[in-house]
Specification:
Blueprint lengths: L11 E2 H8 L5 H10 L3 E5 L2 E4 L1 H4 L5 H8 L3 E3 L1 H7 L10 E5 L4 E5 L2 E7 L2 H4 L3 E6 L3 E6 L1 H11 L8 H11 L12 H10 L3 H14 L1
Parallel strand pairs: 5-7
Antiparallel strand pairs: 1-3, 2-3, 4-5, 6-7, 8-9
Helix pairs in contact: 1-2, 5-7, 8-10, 9-10
């Protein structure tokens, strides 16, 4: 068995790879050779993921997003697509972070990070466990909606009707899937978040369809 297989789809750094390589005079050259042979995929300087042909595990871009730039959680359209609240397939993985905004272009796609204050960041995050093998942090459906409203420039939702139009026409939200949404999370976001007026209108609308 290739020693790299034991890492599965968990991202690994230079230190971990150096341990696998052992006493090698030029470990960076060895790591570069492993990358060239498609045994590992470079995510950013010093961070890699084992290729699926070696790990025999499906690469999780959501898991990578958590490791690539943290502290962060998957959110926005990526989370809404995960919960099947929007019909579109999302190509970029979008996340929320407490650090400054950043974007990474990798062989596995684009990873975008939007900055939010720490007290807002901590609301409405859950752990998604996959096949009892790994887990990543993702926004709840309610938090993902709030995040998207806060992160969208020049978005003004001044009435319940405008909120409905935005959700229906812009996002194409499946209303039947959000009837059981936890409005308490939205209330918490209103307390500490920006765009309080917009979030209040979102709350009003969601309360009318529950």
């Amino acid at each position: 068995m290739n020693e790299l297989e034991k890492f599965g789809n968990i991202p690994v750094d230079n230190a971990v790879l150096s341990d696998v390589i052992g006493s090698y005079k030029f470990p960076r050259n060895k790591i570069a050779a492993m990358e060239k042979r498609d045994e590992i995929v470079r995510l950013k300087k010093g961070l890699y993921v084992v290729s699926d042909k070696i790990s025999r595990k499906k690469i999780s871009r959501e898991l990578i997003a958590n490791h690539l730039y943290g502290t962060s959680y998957v959110s926005l359209e990526t989370a809404l697509s995960h919960y099947r609240l929007i019909p579109e397939k999302v190509f970029a993985i979008r996340s929320i972070t407490t650090k400054r905004a950043k974007q990474f272009e990798t062989a596995l796609g684009c990873f975008e990070y939007i900055s939010m204050p720490a007290n807002y960041f901590s609301i409405g995050i859950r752990q998604q466990i996959v096949d009892n093998e790994y887990a990543y942090l993702i926004a709840t459906p309610e938090k993902a909606l709030c995040d998207l409203i806060l992160a969208t420039p020049n978005l003004r939702l001044q009435s319940v009707h405008v909120v409905q139009t935005y959700l229906e026409d812009n996002l194409r939200i499946d209303f039947s899937a959000i009837q059981n949404i936890n409005t308490e999370i939205i209330r918490l976001c209103i307390e500490v978040g920006r765009k309080k007026a917009e979030l209040k209108q979102l709350l009003k609308f969601l309360e009318t369809i529950k």
